[in-house]
# Entry
Amino acid sequence: MDPLALLRGLLDTTEDAARALVGRERIRLAVTGLSRAGKTVFLTSLVANLLAAGRGARTLPALSEAAGGRIRRVFIEPAGTETVPRFDPEAHLAALAADPPRWPERTEDFSTLSIAIDVERRTSLGGLLPERRVTLDLIDYPGEWLLDLPLLRQDFATWSAATLARLRAWPAAATTEFLAFLDALPAGAPAEDALAKRGHTLYRDMLRACRDTHGLRFLQPGRFLNPGPRGDAPLLWFFPLPAGARGGLADLCARRYAAYLDDQRATFLDPFFSRFHRQVVLVDVLGALHAGEAAFRDTAEALAAVAEVISGASWLERLLGAAPGRVAFAATKADHVPTRARDALAALLDHIALGARGRAEASGAVTTCHAVAAIRCTEDAVATLEGQALAAVRGLLLNGGQGATIYPGEVPMKPPEPAFWDAGFFRMPDFQPPRLDPAGGSGVPHLGLDALLAWLIGDAL
Ligand code: GDP
# Structure
């Protein structure tokens, strides 16, 4: 590990210890999710409900209980001098408070927000002590970058082979052009930038189509899909090549792959990722189920690869602040299924990440799987299908606001057998979010957000 990063980790630990002595503590919670997982909505609900809890509303009962009922005040800290963009809760909350309410605009890039939580302290005899301030730093980063973590353990040839093997199972409509380009490359192709850029563009467009049209998620490298604030650069002009490719172009792609990883490490992983204390990874498991077998399998593989890296770091790295100490995986939009299916949803997520979890527990990491709805839009209902009564959900549709009862299909407790896919799933509509009371006093209805937060940060309060 880079000695400078180790030093930064040590400094951080000392800084935190000093803060604890003067009654201030800082806890960094990173939030990410595979694309469209519900990250913006999750952060918006988290902020709205924490603020409401600070005003005494019982919107996060499990978190309040974990804090011994001692949360006294919560407020958003003014932005400091950071160069990273700030998550914009005001705009997101205003969208939910509009008439009719709208979903917040999604965020694409890196952003942060600090929330101060004042907690009452008492002596063992019940006397009041000065309040303790815990600062919760929320760090929101694109899930696409998360998918770069497994790359750090692979060289260009290994990554190329794994990617091209996966790609053969992707829909032909998306891959034909890139594969034709690869087939037409002459043996020993020269290191020409026009060629490198053409290959990169075809590869990147294929990744985009796979994500946007086919619901695939295991798409690397992350910055091809989400270039971040620095946009396109020659560093990104590479693509996977078949085994045995030799010559100038192959060398150029391999060099750029290595430079890309160095750059991700220097600009994101070392300064930010290594400093997270806690991490939540959001996954739209239901969306993947509804998108069909290929999308589901792909999401499961992506999640397993990511889980293996982030929860499998060594004790030493963890001790020096080089990896998050607690990692929660959360299946989002749990209000798309009725109450009785939510345990199955959490179990399914657990199953997908289980291999990694076993390893993580061996190395001392703590991981968990939850099913949550950051904003609950539905109630349980009963649907009748071919004369049969089925557990369903009822909510208002986003377009038009009429009520609809939807049967979402069954949620398997583990990755389903092939026959499962024959039955077919129904497409879930977008529901209208409940309207936020403009004063924000009562928070936002959710499912399980409090239990997840209690697990993630309850011990720090
Ligand atoms: P991001 O791309 O991960 O930031 O995704 P968003 O947070 O923007 O969420 C994408 C969409 O998913 C939203 O516009 C909503 O339609 C839907 N969504 C997100 N969270 C929930 C939830 O808790 N319940 C329901 N019913 N829909 C949700």
